[in-house]
Amino acid sequence: MFEFMRGRPHATGSHRLGKTSLLAGLKGSELNIVEGFLHTRHYLPGEIVFDQDEDGQALYVVLSGRVLICRPGHADTPIAELGAGEFFGELALLDDSPRSAQARAGEPAELAVLFRGDFERLMESHAQIASRIAMQLARHIGQRLRNMVALVPHEVRSQ
Questions:
Q1: H helices of the chain, where?
Q2: pLDDT tens, 52-75?
Q3: Rounded distance, CA 113 to CA 47, Å?
Q4: pTM higher than 0.70
Q5: Which sequence spans correspond to the domains of the chain?
Q6: CATH says 3-157 is which class?
Q7: Which end of the chain has fewer beta carbons closer than 10 Å to its terminal beta carbon, N or C?
């Protein structure tokens, strides 16, 4: 069962947040501001963070532990394994599409959670910080697309 810090944002420690590529370009004072919009959750091994086809509501940053991204029914072969400093679920900040995979804790995990509504409030109150985060999200998604294209055989791409 996850532990939610009384429904309020909870300080996660700027030193840990600054290690994720999503927030790496932010100064200490900016990280402190972002921290005020984050919520901390704890998950036990095997606990579901979110399921495939659920409404996406938040982006998650792994503070400690390990999170597995997998398709339901294929838990033995995760699509990705994420550790401290990595983030996932970022499309939830950008659109209302359902989750494309399941995320679950591979071991005890502490996650910082940025809900869409909190990101929107961050955009309203600290537009420059939010725009830098949005640019990092765009770079991350762009890199993921380039990696996917590189995996597709040239014959398939040219059809």
A1: 14-17, 28-35, 116-125, 127-151, 154-157
A2: 999 999 999 999 999 999 987 776
A3: 16
A4: yes
A5: 3-157
A6: mainly beta
A7: C
